[in-house]
Amino acid sequence: MQKHWWHKATIYQIYPKSFMDSNGDGIGDLKGIISKLDYLQKLGITAIWLSPVYQSPMDDNGYDISDYEAIADIFGDMADMEELLVQAKKRGIRIIMDLVVNHTSDEHAWFIEARDYPDSPKRDYYIWRDQPNGLTSAFSGSAWEYDDLSGQYYLHLFSKKQPDLNWENEELRQSIYDMMNRWIDKGVAGFRMDVIDLIGKKPDQEITGNGPKLHDYLKEMHQASLLDKDLLTVGETWGATPEIAKQYSNPENQELSMVFQFEHIGLLFKPDAPKWDYAEELDVSALKAIFTKWQTELELGQGWNSLFWNNHDLPRVLSSWGNTGSYREKSAKALAILLHLMRGTPYVYQGEEIGMTNYPFVDLSQVEDIESINYAKEALEEGQSMESIMDSIRKIGRDNARTPMQWDAGLQAGFSNATKTWLPVHPNHQEINVEAALSHPESIFYTYQKLIALRKEEDWLVDADFKLLETAEKVFAYQRSTGDKTYLVVVNLSDEPQPFELDLHWKETIISNTEESAVLESKQLQAWDAFCVVL
Ligand code: TEU
Ligand code: CA
């Protein structure tokens, strides 16, 4: 299998609105990111996945793009973007851009022309119908918005300010590839591709994900923009299975490097229930089965996994599946050790490395995300109580991931010197912040730093196989073998002691958040014990 730089990389996701504010307007920006590159270099990450910074009315915080080749004023300008590329490169850090090409903003020039001049060739860049069908938006309501001028409806699988692009239009596709090539010429190292599994949609058949021409388009994109450029491309594909992930990431198919699949994330929700009907606790048996499937069916050379707990759309994993009380640090390390020693490219979301948590939103006035606001409106109309709506938003809402990065214990957590930030800073920034993390050698930060260094140095993390071990339900133990070496990873995903009967002896410890020799003697794992040893 040909090795690429991203096989041994760890990628750090930045949500620009919330990372660092350099000009005191309470909103993160590019100069703020540049000021924190030394911190990211110390963490050891190889690349930054930068959520959108393009021109946008910010209806969906930049995932509604009105100009793919201009920078939103709140983030700075193109000179700042080019400076970020230069300063990051000086520190050995690559920049991965967020490519949002399933839809544009309704303020994009293409859509304005398409809507205002129905006879324009740009009309076919979007999806217009005389009558809506049953398709619904991920942000509540119908996926069709009526347009007075033409008397037609246009499709929007997200907000009505995010009209879907018609990928059947060849001229549109070529415009996308040309734009990608100009960003590549600027020196970006790849793309995260927003809901890319939707670009093959067949709206009249109400097919959205995994449409018939999806892989044809990706192969065409690869030839037009990605061929032999050693870029990292990761598709956001909510509906992927291991078989479909092979189609995307088998190098012979010349499509993408890897995809984000969300089967493990699905355990946040009750089975077959709407997103807001969250599961009370983690089904560890299901988690083990899901990771085992993905680790074994996407075997080396046939495709490549991404590995993540968090992103800007998800509640903080520590609040969902860890412990935010007395075992906050230990459980955060346990979750990191469990994930980062599997096969795949790990992604660390801003603040995960210091154990940031969900925010205690009091009422809707504190909530900013369009997905949550639309959900609340629809749920209220359907008679749901505000208390149960706020309970769901506190557990599952995307704003949980978007509160400002916590740099220190000072005002606004060192994120901004504004009196009011665009989302409130978490009050627990007094204890949970980068400055405190860097000053404590046993902090979560240094566990992430060590895991990231291991990935860079150790070939076994790429080459070794994966085998799940039979253990107590709340214990997730797997071993990875390559050549004559076998590595054992053991994690207790609970607040209680768990039996550990495996009769094993080990030569050395790779990483640990506990006194692992005691485990052998007592045949018991203490709460949130996690370690990797060489057998
Ligand atoms: O997310 C796609 C997506 O499906 C998620 O919004 C998902 O529906 C929900 O958030 C899961 O809880 C991508 C971006 O990551 C997201 O931020 C954008 O809002 C969305 O596409 C539209 O661009
Ligand atoms: Ca700012």
TrEMBL record:
Give the EC number(s) listed in the UniProt record. Answer: 3.2.1.70
Catalyzed reaction equations: Hydrolysis of (1->6)-alpha-D-glucosidic linkages in (1->6)-alpha-D-glucans and derived oligosaccharides
Q: Which SMART domains match?
A: Aamy
Query: Where does the Glycosyl hydrolase family 13 catalytic domain start and stop, copy by copy?
Result: 13-402
Its keywords, alphabetically, are: Glycosidase, Hydrolase
Q: What GO molecular function annotation could you give as one example from this UniProt entry?
A: glucan 1,6-alpha-glucosidase activity
TM regions (residue ranges): none
Task: Supply the SUPFAM superfamilies for this chain.
Answer: (Trans)glycosidases, Glycosyl hydrolase domain
Domain of life assignment = Bacteria
Q: Which GO terms describe its biological process?
A: oligosaccharide catabolic process
Q: Does the keyword Manganese apply?
A: no
PANTHER family assigned to the protein according to its UniProt record, in alphabetical order: ALPHA-AMYLASE FAMILY MEMBER, NEUTRAL AND BASIC AMINO ACID TRANSPORT PROTEIN RBAT
| Family, as annotated | Belongs to the glycosyl hydrolase 13 family.
What function is annotated for this protein?
A: The physiological substrates may be short isomaltosaccharides.
Name of this protein: Glucan 1,6-alpha-glucosidase
Q: From which source organism is this entry? A: Streptococcus minor
